[in-house]
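User: I'm putting together notes for a lab meeting next week and I want to include a structural view of one of the chains we've been expressing. I don't have a solved structure, so I'd like a prediction I can at least talk through. The sequence is below, exactly as it appears in our construct file.
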Amino acid sequence: MATRKARLEEFVIDRTPASGQQVEALAEDHVGTYILPFRCEYANGKWRNAETGETVQAHVQGWRELRPQRQKGIRPLKGLQ
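Assistant: Thanks for the context. Below is the predicted structure for the 81-residue chain, given as structure tokens.
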């Protein structure tokens, strides 16, 4: 299990993304940190679910650019990850 510090190092924490840019967001609550299971956007001073437009009800600690999703059941060849 990744430590809080190690997880934060994988995310941008010193600025917000460009308005409307879809990103992966890292949130934190009393249990710990977790990656939100949906794409997020930061616009007009608020984090929102990129698909529904709903305001995120969690404290977002950081963000990173979206990573390509691996296709279910297909694993990259060793050395090509």
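A couple of points you could mention at the meeting. Residues 63 and 74 are 26 Å apart (CA to CA). The helical segments are 4-8.

User: Perfect, that's what I needed.
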